[in-house]
Design goal:
273 residues; binds ligand 8Y4; single chain; TIM Barrel; two-stranded antiparallel sheet; alpha/beta; eight-stranded parallel beta sheet; 10 helices
Length: 273
């Protein structure tokens, strides 16, 4: 399976690791973005050194209940990081955004992948990616980040997530975008209870049957805490189990905070697969 994204083509014949790079103002920042930019670029280069196959750059927290950031704030966080990394990175750069304006400027700055938790449903988003050669990750979410965990509800979570991903895949294909550019993602934790998340992991192969490469994100999420205990900093081992299980069940890319440990664990999976 080949995944085409910008200037890159990834042969997904072994599990791949997408490293998470958050660009958020830090305690050293005096309101300017200089510190945040440099910390994010340094972190990204560290993740490449640890073996990341892709970098995912995000400027807005999408965790449950988080407050959205303005368009200008998101742009000023992520665009300088992408500009710097486009000269330094040896791996594809993904932009984590649902805003078409951020997608457009990120692509102009050198992004190779658009990772959209809203699966290009925002007005204008399909147009932006259709007029580019970037790879695309289409993710399932029920509700919005502000409300999604209040009352997640499905008749059959696997059937409904699968149908949503097929519908969004078809919307993207209708724009003339080649299927070699498209990843699908069940969106763990996005409007799902613990039981829904576990059901989706158990039946991941049904989503793989759609025929597109699957990306999954379970790193440090609450589902892991609910199973193994511990706060966000204590979920590494549970997360490694999740990455191993997901890739054994057909996921091609895992989106993680802990790149080095995940790369090691997935070498074992690759040897077995
Ligand atoms: C601790 C740290 C607890 C982070 C929760 C979180 C996905 C994604 C996110 C995903 C794709 C997150 C942007 C949520 N999750 N993109 N983005 N797939 N494609 N929460 O699962 O990491 S943000």
């Amino acid at each position: 399976m080949i995944f085409k994204c910008g200037q890159y083509q990834l042969e997904l014949n072994r599990p791949h690791v997408m490293g998470i790079v958050n660009v958020t103002p830090d305690s050293f920042s005096d309101g300017g973005e200089f510190n945040a930019t440099n910390l994010a670029v340094e972190h990204a280069l560290q993740l490449i050194a640890e073996g990341a196959d892709i970098l995912d750059i995000g400027g807005e927290s999408t965790r449950p209940g988080a407050t959205p950031v303005s368009l200008d704030e998101e742009l000023s966080r992520v665009i300088p990081v992408i500009q710097a990394l486009s000269k330094l990175s040896t791996v594809p750069i993904s932009i984590d955004t649902y805003k078409p304006e951020v997608m457009r400027e990120a692509i102009a700055a050198g992004a190779d992948i658009v990772n959209d938790i809203r699966a290009l449903q925002e007005a204008g988003a399909l147009d932006v990616v259709a007029n580019s050669n970037v790879g695309i990750c289409l993710m399932h979410m029920q509700g919005t980040p502000q409300t999604m965990q209040l009352d997640p509800n499905y008749t059959d979570v696997v059937v409904e997530v699968k149908q949503f991903l097929i519908d969004r895949l078809n919307a993207v294909l209708s724009c003339g975008i080649d299927k070699s550019r498209i990843l699908l993602d069940p969106g763990f934790g996005f409007g799902k209870t613990r039981a829904h998340n576990i059901m989706l992991i158990q039946h991941l192969s049904q989503l793989a049957d759609i025929g597109q490469p699957l990306l999954v994100g379970l790193s440090r999420k609450a589902i892991l805490g609910s199973i193994a205990g511990g706060d966000e900093q204590q979920r590494l081992h549970a997360g490694l189990a999740a990455s191993v299980i997901s890739t054994m069940k057909g996921a091609k890319i895992v989106r993680v905070h802990d790149v080095q440990a995940t790369v090691d664990a997935l070498k074992v999976v690759a040897a077995v697969l």
